[in-house]
Write a structure and sequence with these properties.
It is a single chain. This protein is α+β, with helices and mostly antiparallel strands. The chain has four domains: 274 residues, Cytochrome Bc1 Complex, Chain A, domain 1, CATH 3.30.830.10; 188 residues, 2-Layer Sandwich (Cytochrome Bc1 Complex, Chain A, domain 1); 269 residues, Cytochrome Bc1 Complex, Chain A, domain 1 (2-Layer Sandwich); 173 residues, Metalloenzyme, LuxS/M16 peptidase-like (Cytochrome Bc1 Complex, Chain A, domain 1). The protein is 45% helix and 19% strand. Helix 2 packs antiparallel against helix 3, helix 3 runs parallel beside helix 9 and helix 11 crosses helix 16. The protein is globular, with a radius of gyration of 29 Å.
Length: 1039
């Protein structure tokens, strides 16, 4: 085996997920660790490069260093080198910084691209340039004109620093961790400290911490071990020899000594405040320091105990404080942080501010008195195990790599004993199943009662809101008085120089090394076997298709009550989706009742004359399924006017899964008390959701784009919060049976009558069922339905556009959101083409070019610290072309920069960069591979592509060929035809969400550009709030 410096430390197969083998190697020369997670279950090769990053202040050095790693290295001294190399190699890079780690990621379609980029990435990691110029734009600077604080990191932290969850978590760190503990620090950096941070501090931190003994390289996917080690070995030869005197972060420092459980009766409590005008709701967190990282079994038991306490309608904390009369919160969840010791927390949101203390007291009392129900916790244990196995199937690389990272940081040595014990087998689950009720109760008492918690109560504060606003105004005022013209010129020169140095061109000859020859053939795509509706021949791997054809007995398809489509692949599970168009709801005024009907699975159910209470229903559901619920959309953003009933279960429970969908539709009983409790909880959750500026913007646009016949508007809380509030009042006034229940039954009856137009999508493994079970479960549960004997049409949301949405132009809209400090922009124009239009490939390439990492938007917007990100999208299914800015530090300059970029390309003033063009083509292939990174994703994608978007099976191959042959004339033409209209007041419209202090400035700017501007202010007593975007349905899911 090549890789002479590296010796294998261990290797084991994950017995319950045999597609994964985990191997660990360590360099005898430098102590660098390499962990390989071998698998052929995805076309993606993923890299996770982990660094233990301990710091004892809030300077944000670990986070700022994370950003600067991407700005060049000693061997490759070009700010854009890493990402341009990645683009050409069908790769993308990213990173995160947490309390105890910084992890750099490399995600690639196939091994060939990955191995191209790996040496560059390693050089950036170990030998970064860390230039003054990169610091100016990436971390922090002051704008010489507006005198505002700018920088990518600065704008990122400014956006979250005053959010309630951030304030609460920071208060916990201060409360629980003493000086001398790395866990006390805010590694992202507080804005106050970012303003005074220097590049010298960052360089010093890198020198001390980014060494081979403190870095672990984790690579997942179908990768040849010898070749991987050979590449890393060549780099390892250039690193300094390990000194063996390095201090392990968190383990060998005072941090580990200070993190201890507290077995006493002293609860340590703190009340903190976050700036907010709506004073009605706060948050509550209770935190316990528990067992050491190496105690795998105890860690599993505590996670199961937390699931038992918090997850689902029957969980004791949910039932006692959330889904109850006079609720004390709208949600409860738990979190586990795996440090030297595990820290577990129970977190409540949407707590009436005046009841925070009451909820804390009641929670602690309940924990003291509760005796664990053995039946329920065994059910929770089984659900938790199946959920874990399901996640491994769908995203095993992430699951296992995160476990490896924690093991690297905290195991007692490099031999991985804790990792092997915890992940090789399911023995810990078997041991957990043997516990008695008394043993579970003893566990609860030991870790959650005798071990005293830290408690944080987070309250909204209008005074703090005003204080925060005044501090910014004062800072700007002081700068306006003290910054001389000469100093402003110096600031401007510093930014100009930074822009010049940062945009130094990478030689074409160097970039040529990263192009993958014949890139489509370099990807090992996975494929499901498709069994289409009405007896068509299965498509997919030939042998598998023949087998499935025999299994399902295609001749029976004609007798089914629906069109049924199967995507077959090896799995322990099946996902069953019954979908019907919302067009079947005859009275559009009933569409907002979707929110109430979403709870059909968790209502009482009636069988004959007997009504089964909802607790029994939910308990049975948990026995038979992994997840269940209702959603909009077929998948993701596609076809939002679909109403979908979804169940995921073990493959052998397929028939039960089908039966549960039938029960939710036919047998659910809309019990007045249950509806009232769930509606009360839902309305309560609206208050905190409007603190998210980006979500508010999406909600605002939907309200303007769609008529109420579409669920995009009718399920939009910005539109219907008042209606749902009126329903709540009607219930309280005794009108449920006479007014509300008849409408719910009308909604149900419309769905039942429309089932002849329904279609069913099944994903997973039906190989153990046989064709009788596969078909008969539908025939038996859905009798009397007369199918169309053709594929039902998917509803076209374009049919419900408002008159304004059909045209765009002349108007722009601003929504001020007091709970969000950042600004968000989304500009829209019509783009009336479909996937067969000859300009579609040109637009695809053009947008990929513009928004590529280190492409035009990146260098001129993010690269100058104007915003955290800027992108452009062509939403073909709704004929929309969009430019958007996320977390803008300077929204107007971001807008103007994008407009200038597009005008310069459209007029030929700036020529297209051939390497960026090649990178955009390669990234398209990476996008295709990533959308098919698991069999489930692949199956959903094939279904939408074939039956919704009407793409032929060879669409991606043909599109790739077209992308390669596009010339600059086509790009220039399409930039003029499709992109310039976005910025034209006659054809484009801007939508903005921002802090109230910025609303008037933005309104004045767009008025000067010729728009009529509507400014809407959301105040603390505003009746209209936000919906959650894609996760707005009541699905209880495992993924």
């Amino acid at each position: 085996m090549t890789g002479n410096n590296f010796k294998q430390v261990f290797s084991f197969n994950v017995e319950y997920a045999p597609q994964y083998t985990i191997k660990k190697f360590q360099s005898e020369r430098t102590k660098l660790q390499v962990v390989q997670i071998l698998s052929k279950s995805s076309p993606m090769v993923e890299g996770y490069f982990a660094v233990g990053t301990e710091i004892f202040n809030d300077s944000g050095i670990p986070h700022t260093l994370e950003h600067l790693i991407f700005t060049g290295s000693k061997k490759y001294p070009y700010k854009s080198i890493l990402d341009k190399a990645a683009n050409l190699s069908m790769s993308s890079t990213n990173a995160w910084t947490a309390t105890d780690q910084t992890v750099y990621t490399l995600s690639t379609a196939g091994w060939l691209g990955f191995k191209n980029v790996l040496p560059v990435y390693l050089d950036c990691l170990f030998n970064p340039t860390l230039s003054n110029e990169a610091f100016v734009t990436e971390v922090y600077h002051v704008d010489p004109v507006s005198l505002q604080d700018k920088g990518v990191v600065y704008s990122e932290m400014e956006a979250i620093e005053n959010q309630s969850w951030f304030v609460k978590d920071l208060a916990y760190k201060r409360l629980a961790h003493q000086n001398g503990s790395g866990y006390r620090s805010e590694t992202g950096g507080l804005t106050e400290n970012l303003r005074s941070l220097t590049i010298e501090e960052i360089r010093d931190y890198h020198e001390k911490n980014y060494n081979s003994e403190n870095i672990c390289l984790i690579i997942t996917g179908n990768v040849p071990t010898d070749e991987l080690l050979s590449i890393i070995n060549e780099f390892d030869d250039q690193l300094p020899v390990a000194t063996n005197d390095k201090v392990r972060p968190f383990v060998d420092t005072t941090t580990s000594e200070l993190l201890k459980p507290r077995f006493n009766d002293q609860i340590i409590e703190k009340t903190c405040q976050f700036p907010e005008l709506d004073l009605s709701q706060g948050e509550l967190g209770l935190y316990w320091v528990t067992s050491e990282y190496t105690d795998c079994l105890n860690d599993l038991l505590l996670n199961i105990l937390m699931e038992y306490m918090t997850d689902g309608s029957l969980a004791i904390l949910q039932k006692s404080f959330v889904e109850c009369d006079d609720p004390l919160a709208n949600d409860v969840s738990y979190q586990t942080e795996d440090f030297v010791r595990s820290v577990i927390s129970i977190n409540y949101s949407g707590v009436p501010t005046e009841k925070l203390q009451l909820l804390k007291d009641k929670t602690l009392d309940l924990l003291k008195q509760h005796k664990v129900d053995l039946v329920k916790i065994k059910q929770t244990l089984e659900s938790y195990k199946l959920s874990y196995l399901s996640k491994l199937e769908r995203n095993g690389a992430d699951i296992l790599s995160n476990s490896v990272i924690t093991n690297f940081l905290y195991d007692k040595d490099v031999n991985g004993e804790t990792l092997i014990n915890g992940y090789k087998t399911l023995k810990d689950f078997d041991d957990a199943a043997k516990l008695t009720s008394d043993q579970w109760t003893d566990l609860l008492n030991k870790w959650l009662v005798q071990n005293s918690p830290y408690v944080v109560l987070a309250e909204p504060s209008a005074d703090l809101y005003e204080q925060s606003k005044k501090e910014k105004e004062t800072r700007l005022h002081e700068r306006s008085k003290t910054f001389t013209d000469e100093y402003k010129d110096q600031l401007a020169e510093k930014i100009r120089l930074a822009d010049e140095v940062n945009n130094k061109a990478v030689p074409d000859a160097l970039l040529e090394n990263f192009k993958v020859q014949d890139p489509a053939k370099a990807i090992d795509f996975i494929e499901t076997t498709s069994v289409p509706c009405f007896g068509s021949k299965p498509t997919g791997p030939e042998a598998e298709a023949e087998k499935v054809q025999k299994l399902v007995g295609l001749q029976k398809a004609q007798t089914l009550p629906f069109s049924v489509h199967l995507e077959q692949f090896d799995s322990n599970f099946v996902e069953i989706n019954l979908m019907v168009s919302s067009e079947v709801i005859k009275d559009e005024d009933n569409l907002p009742l979707f929110w109430l009907f979403c709870d059909a699975f968790t209502m009482p159910m009636k069988y004959g004359n007997e009504i089964i209470d909802y607790e029994t229903v939910v308990s049975s559901l948990k026995d038979d399924t992994l997840s269940f619920g209702m959603q909009r959309h077929v998948v993701s953003k596609y076809y939002p006017d679909i109403i979908k009933f979804k169940v995921k279960c073990k493959a052998e429970n397929y028939c039960k899964g089908v039966e549960w969908i039938k029960k939710a539709i036919y047998n659910s009983v809309f019990d007045e008390h249950r509806v009232n409790v769930l509606l009360d909880n839902f309305l309560s959750s609206i208050v905190e959701s409007h603190r998210d500026g980006m979500n508010m913007l999406k909600c605002y646009m939907k309200d303007i784009f769609y008529e109420k016949r579409s669920l995009e508007k009718s399920s939009n809380i910005l539109t219907n919060e008042e209606l749902l509030q009126n329903i709540k009042e009607d219930i309280e006034n005794g009108l449920f049976k006479g007014k509300i229940l008849p409408k719910l039954e009308e909604f149900r009856n419309d769905i039942i009558k429309g089932l002849d137009q329904a279609h069913v999508l099944i994903l997973g493994d039906i190989s153990k069922l046989g064709h009788d079970a596969f078909y008969n479960s539908w025939v038996q549960n859905f009798k009397g339905i007369h199918p169309l004997n053709k594929f039902p049409e998917l509803p076209d949301v374009k049919e419900h556009f408002t008159e304004f949405r059909k045209g765009f132009g002349e108007k722009s809209f601003i929504l001020t959101t007091p709970g969000s400090d950042s600004s968000y922009l989304s500009i829209h124009a019509n783009c009336n083409i479909d996937y067969t239009h000859p300009d579609y490939p040109v637009i695809k390439l053009l947008l990929g070019y513009l928004q590529a990492t280190e492409g035009p938007f990146w260098t001129s917007i993010r690269g100058l610290g104007l915003a955290y990100g800027a992108w452009a999208f062509n939403y073909v299914d709704v004929h929309d072309i969009t430019f958007m800015v996320y977390r803008a530090a300077d929204l107007i300059k971001s807008y103007e920069a994008a407009e200038t970029i597009i005008k310069d390309l459209a007029t030929g003033k700036v020529t297209f960069d051939k390497n960026l063009i090649n990178g955009a083509i390669a990234l398209y292939l990476k996008e295709v591979a990533e959308s098919n990174k698991s069999f489930v994703n692949s199956g959903y994608g094939k279904y939408v592509k074939t039956y919704g978007l009407m793409k032929d099976p060879s669409f991606n191959q043909k599109l790739t060929e077209k992308l390669i042959n596009i010339d600059n004339k086509d790009l220039i033409r399409c930039a003029n035809t499709y992109l310039l209209p976005i910025f034209d007041k006659n054809t484009g419209s801007a939508f903005i969400a921002c802090h109230p202090t910025k609303g008037d400035d933005f309104k004045e700017y767009f008025q000067k550009r010729g728009y009529t501007v509507e400014l809407r202010e959301l105040k603390e007593d505003d009746e209209d709030y936000d919906e959650s975007d894609e996760s707005d349905e009541s699905e209880q899911d495992d993924d």
